[in-house]
Each structure stands twice: as structure tokens, then as C-alpha cells.
From TrEMBL:
GO terms for molecular function: GTP binding; GTPase activity. Residues 2-194 form the Tubulin/FtsZ GTPase domain. HAMAP family: CetZ. Coiled coil: none annotated. One of its GO terms (cellular component) is cell division site. This is Tubulin-like protein CetZ. Belongs to the CetZ family. InterPro entries: CetZ, CetZ_C, FtsZ/CetZ, Tubulin/FtsZ-like_C, Tubulin/FtsZ_GTPase_sf, Tubulin_CS, Tubulin_FtsZ_GTPase. GO terms for biological process: cell division; microtubule-based process; regulation of cell shape. It is found in: Cytoplasm. Involved in cell shape control.
Length: 390
């Protein structure tokens, strides 16, 4: 799938920068990416997105210093400067892309406010689907972040064709601050979505046993709403690709042994089914009740001689038995790697506790703000002293 990424705000920009870095190492280039921000220093810190693809907005309002967690201002600046953002996107070329993906932290100001606005305009202008990847704040970041995220997400689900969620709080370790975990979390995001968004692109390793093309991804996501992704990776399965770092390389699975595991027939299928189960039952990008998913997509990527049609078919049936809907698509694609990766997209989820919690916090926050405004008394309420002028 050829993707045009837009990183909105600090988190979005950093993550798109990593996608571009990953793409530079891939056998075929599938990604294009730009970053949009109200903070100059955030844009300057990027390493892989070209300078001309970093757009600073809101200069006259916030002078390059960011919107300070005010997502209403983030939305307003984006709406006011939408033409210059769209012009930049246009000038980078959109004729050969399959989808837009806008990425942002939903708890802040710029990305949280700007993403729903940008998605609305992209959908209005282009025929390609527009997806969002929204990062949820951890509770420890405070009520303002939760409030922002709930408002942004409630708007975003109506503007994007589908919204993938990554929940920071589900991924940071006990005792670790969210800030300390960013690098690791971003790595997790880029690895999962990299396997998904690269599906259907043919590299020199050839085509898979059961090819998944971008239309299958698009059809899986057609229902809208929010989606979550599961992922699992095998131990090393081949010697041949072992020396090369490869696309899935660098992943810190336990080193087992150096012996080549030659899998045949049932073994190959069993390995794939096992991986898919681990992907779906393990930690999802958004922890949720997977039985409420309307659609799913099962993707297997790895060395071509490990791809197995029967394994994919059986995995799809297993996923279908476990989700609410009946539409389960899937396939595989070969990668120059010594490991097999499985990605399960659980699309249009009906229930996720963390989102319910965020919506509840937002409701309470709104009520508290109204109450505190009503109760507010100041030392200067007394009008017995005349002001200098009215
Ligand atoms: N996973 C992840 N989350 C991040 C990262 N940076 C920030 N966040 C989260 O994103 C939210 C804040 O969004 P930012 O992207 O920093 O904010 P912004 O869009 O630049 O908006 P302002 O700074 O308010 O102008 C918070 O919930 C952070 O925890 C990152 O590198 N990775």
C-alpha cells in the first residue's frame, strides 16, 4: 500500500519521521511523509522528513511556540491555514498513493485539534481513504490531556474513514513515565503499522502465497469507527536471512539457538496459527473486547519459504469464530527477514474500556468547569469602588 503520512504535532511528527526512516531501508519505497506543527523546535528536531516537507502553521498567532495543550486553538489555526497544508500535500504528489494516514497525540493541542480538521478537508478533496492513528494519553498526564483526547477522538471518528488507536498507558511499563517510554512506544507503533501498510507492495523477494492488496485493507476499514492492532513475531526461522538485519530485524525476541528450524507442512501452518493467536490475544494497540470487532484482517510477513496458504486460511477461520462480524480478510507477503510476523487488524470495535473512561472523564470535566464558573467569586466582585473607565 502506498501511504501519504502526515505527522501532526510533536508525537505525530516524530512517528512519521520514523516511518520514513524505515522506508529508506525497505526494498521498495512505499511511504511519503510530511510534518505539520505550530512549534518550530519540534519540526527542527526531525531527521528524515525533508526540510521542505515540514510545515510551520500559526506563526502569527503563537509565533512558533506551539499552542500549549489548547486543542481549540490547534483546530482553529489548522482551519485558517488549511490551504497551505493542502498545497504542500499536493505539491508532493498524490496521484499514486492508496491512502492518507494522519498521526497525532490526541491529548495535546496542535495534533489533537488539527487532525480532525485536516481529515475533513482531505476527505473532501481526495478520493483516497483518510485514516488516522490517534495516540491516547496516560491518566497520569492529567485531566486536561484526557479531556482533549476525548473531544478530539469524538470528532475524529466522524471525519476519518477509520481511526487506529494506540494507548500509551497500556504500553508503558510499571514505574516508567510516559515520557521515558516514548522511544520504545514509537518503535512498537512503527513496527506494527509498517507491516500493515507495506502489505501489497512487491519487492525483490517476490509475491506471497496469498497476496493481500491495498483494496483488502481498505475494505476491512470501510466500517469506520476505531480499530486496534495485534502483533506477534516468531523466533528466527531461517539461517539465510539471519545475517541481514531485514525489515523485522532488531526486534528483541529472546535468542533461542542458532539451529535452522526447517518447517514443513503442518508445522508451518501450526506456526502461523500460533502467531495469529498470540497477536490477537496478546497486547493490542488499544486493549479492547475483540469479540466486538466488525471486521478483521490477518497478515503474515516473513521469509517466502515460510509462507503457508493453509496456515493463513485456518487463522482466518479462527479469527472469524472469535469476532462479532463475518468479514475476515487475510494473506501474506514475503520479506527479507529471519522471522515471521503476524498482524491482526480488529476493525470497527464496539467496546474499549479506555475510551469509555476517557469519555466519562470528559463529561465530568465539562460539568466541573461549568460548576466552578458558576461558583467563582473574586475579591473584586464588590462594585462599591468605581473603575477608572467602563
Ligand atoms: N507514543 C508517543 N506519545 C507521545 C510522544 N510525544 C508526545 N506524546 C503524547 O502525545 C500527547 C501530547 O501530544 P504532542 O504531540 O506532544 O502535542 P502537540 O500536538 O505537539 O501539541 P502542543 O504541544 O500542545 O502544541 C501526550 O499524551 C503525550 O504523552 C511520542 O513521541 N510518542
Amino acid at each position: 500500500m502506498r501511504v501519504f503520512f502526515i505527522g501532526f504535532g510533536q508525537a505525530g511528527g516524530k512517528i512519521v519521521d520514523m516511518f520514513i526512516e524505515q522506508d529508506k531501508k525497505a526494498p521498495v519505497r512505499s511511504f511519503r511523509g510530511i510534518a505539520v506543527n505550530t512549534a518550530r523546535t519540534d519540526l527542527m528536531g526531525l531527521r528524515n522528513i525533508e526540510l521542505k516537507d515540514r510545515i510551520l502553521i500559526g506563526q502569527t498567532v503563537v509565533k512558533g511556540h506551539g499552542v500549549g495543550t489548547d486543542n481549540v486553538t490547534g483546530a482553529k489555526i489548522t482551519a485558517d491555514e488549511i490551504d497551505s497544508i493542502i498545497n504542500t500535500i499536493d505539491s508532493r504528489g498524490t496521484h499514486d498513493i492508496d491512502a492518507f494516514v494522519v498521526i497525532a497525540g490526541l491529548g495535546g493541542g496542535t495534533g489533537s485539534g488539527g487532525t480532525p480538521v485536516l481529515c475533513r478537508h482531505l476527505k473532501r478533496i481526495y478520493r483516497e481513504p483518510v485514516y488516522a492513528v490517534g495516540i491516547l494519553p496516560a491518566p497520569e498526564e492529567g485531566r486536561l490531556y484526557s479531556y482533549n483526547a476525548a473531544r478530539s477522538l469524538s470528532t475524529l471518528v466522524n471525519e476519518a474513514d477509520n481511526t487506529f488507536i494506540f494507548d500509551n498507558s497500556a504500553w508503558k511499563n510499571e514505574g516508567e513515565s510516559v515520557r521515558m517510554a516514548y522511544e520504545r512506544l514509537n518503535d512498537e507503533i512503527v513496527r506494527r503499522f509498517g507491516v500493515l501498510f507495506r502489505a501489497g507492495e512487491v519487492g525483490k523477494t517476490g509475491v506471497g502465497e496469498m497476496v493481500v492488496d491495498s483494496s483488502e485493507i481498505i475494505n476491512t476499514l470501510r466500517g469506520g469507527g476505531v480499530s486496534s492492532i495485534g502483533y506477534a513475531i516468531s523466533e528466527k526461522v531461517t539461517k539465510s536471512a539471519k545475517q541481514k538485519k531485514g525489515f523485522l530485524g532488531g526486534f528483541s525476541v529472546k535468542k533461542k539457538d542458532n539451529a535452522e528450524e526447517v518447517l514443513t507442512g503442518e508445522d508451518k501452518s501450526a506456526k502461523i496459527i500460533g502467531l495469529v493467536r498470540r497477536a490477537m490475544l496478546g497486547r493490542l494497540t488499544l486493549p479492547c473486547d475483540y469479540t466486538t470487532a466488525e471486521r478483521a484482517l490477518v497478515l503474515i510477513a516473513g521469509p517466502s519459504d515460510e509462507m503457508d496458504r493453509k496456515g493463513v486460511e485456518k487463522s482466518k477461520s479462527w479469527v472469524e469464530e472469535n469476532i462479532a462480524g463475518v468479514e475476515v480478510r487475510g494473506g501474506d507477503y514475503p520479506l527479507e527477514s529471519s522471522k515471521i510476523a503476524a498482524v491482526v487488524v480488529l476493525a470497527s470495535i464496539g467496546d474499549a474500556p479506555r475510551i469509555r473512561e476517557l469519555l466519562e472523564i470528559a463529561k465530568e470535566t465539562k460539568e466541573d468547569v461549568i460548576r466552578s464558573k458558576e461558583r467563582r467569586v473574586t475579591m473584586f466582585d464588590d462594585d462599591s469602588v468605581d473603575p477608572l473607565f467602563e
